[in-house]
Amino acid sequence: xxxxxxxxxxxxxxxxxxxxxxxxxxxxxxxxxxxxxxxxxxxxxxxxxxxxxxxxxxxxxxxx
Amino acid sequence: xxxxxxxxxxxxxxxxxxxxxxxxxxxxxxxxxxxxxxxxxxxxxxxxxxxxxxxxxxxxxxxxxxxxxxxxxxxxxxxxxxxxxxxxxxxxxxxxxxxxxxxxxxxxxxxxxxxxxxxxxxxxxxxxxxxxxxxxxxxxxxxxxxxxxx
Lengths: 64, 150
Description:
heterodimer, A: 2 helices, B: mainly alpha, 5 helices, transmembrane helix (chain A), transmembrane (chain A), membrane (chain A), transmembrane (chain B)
């Protein structure tokens, strides 16, 4: 088990992705005009992709 | 014509005309500052028009402008950095005045909208507008020149 797969690291990664996902889903729900179930599904899916991109972007500008 | 539309007209005529004049005349350093302030001058006008005409879709235009305006300024700052070498293009008095005007407009439209998701959206736009403009102005004045890859 190397450093990238320790439970602590995995937990941190999942936590960060979940935080991005929640924030982006909330942003989606705020920016649309009317909320109904399809919007929830689309918003949550797009936010999941956005969370991956956001983490990649955050890592790209980190000095570590 | 109601008060909202009148305010938007005054803002478009004053801020828009001033920004256009600044962009089309003078040295590069002044043009680039005027280009940056154009977003901050026009975005609140769109919010006022949305309220005045009762068309929430105009708010989306304001959101796009608030998001893309500062990004465009950063591109200009990057592409023109050789022309702007040794200069520190800035107009902090105007920058803060326009930021304050944006904040006042967002507050007024929020008060008219009332609590709810629409108000949160307006606050997001206001934060993007004011924050983005201040960051873009700092970038233009050379504050981030030492940043790696900047």
